[in-house]
Amino acid sequence: MRPTPIAASQSSARPKNLKYFATTLRANDSTDRRNLDDFQRAWTAFEAACSWVPVEQMTLVSGGTRWRSENGTDATFADTVAAAFEKAGSGGLSNSVLAMIVAEQITGRPGRLFKRSLSSYEEAARQWKKLGLTPGDIRALPLNVQFEIENMGGIPASARNVASRQALDAALKDPEVAYRILGGYRSGFSRQEFDEQLKGLNEGLAEADKVAAVRCSLAENRVAQLVGLRIADKALTASISIGNMDTANNVTVNVPGAQTTLTSMKDQMSAVKSQTLAMRSVGASGLMGSWMGSWMGFARRAGVMPRNG
Asked: What is the top-level taxon of the source organism (predicted)?
């Protein structure tokens, strides 16, 4: 029941069939367990009543137990692969991604996208290009790996955006897991603030999508991108761009200042919209190939007073 290869580096599968296989296997396994228990009791009774019968070896019980364990592993594998393809939303997935997902599910060890730490953005870009991951591959990756991608400089913003949105969706569904992955318990940043700012970021991203949809006529630039979701300096930080960061030739960055939080991200997106309209009204050159970003979420350091003006 392994996926059928469709290319040298990809596999395909039908999630519905894999889930049916896993369900059937577990149902049969339950029946086999009862039969094995019945046999174990009968064998124990036989040995007690007929101790004079020489028996050199009996491996049915131990072998049956190992067989059931392997069946359980196969069922887990099938469920894991099915879930990966459902998350990807496509018919094909990279074999390297599948291997990482299955290894983490079976062994419990978190996977890593790169085998060693990267010394530069250029190296990250080279290694990323070699991986050849599609948006579907990124959506299927384990959550901890998605957080790794969305915070990694040197790789395309389009890829970071896919990972960031997946990470944000997962964090909204299960804030505790995301809080732990991001090191929240070591950061001094409270869970309550984390939850509130996640919601604010989600509202801001929805507003950014609306602004991007009407911002300009170029389809490739009609996009909002989310990157850099992390906890830093006792705050949740993130960056949202209006426009394609991979292709833009003009950049405008809005940094509201210390003590701002992601709960006000929706308001910041409205400000970006107003700024865009103002630039259009004066005929700003290069607007069609630009992006505007808001970098949000940092606390004022203790002892540092804000300046007026």
From this structure: Bacteria
Q: Determine the Cα–Cα distance for residues 273 and 214; give it in Å rounded to an integer.
A: 10
Contact of 240 with 210, CB cutoff 8 Å? no
Listed in sequence order, the DSSP H helices in 50-112 are 60-88, 95-107
- Same domain for 147 and 290? yes
Do 90 and 136 form a contact (C-beta atoms < 8 A)? yes
> pLDDT tens digits, residue range 54-66?
877 777 777 777 7
pLDDT per residue as tens digits for the range 256-296: 655 566 666 666 666 666 666 555 554 554 444 555 555 55
All residues at 6 or more sequence positions from 176 whose CB lies less than 8 Å from its CB, including other chains: 191
Q: Same structural domain for residues 202 and 84?
A: no
Identify the helix (H) or strand (E) that includes residue 291: strand 290-296
Residue 192 lies in domain: 121-296
Closest by CA position to 231, among listed 169, 147, 111: 147
Would you say the pTM of this structure is higher than 0.85?
Answer: no
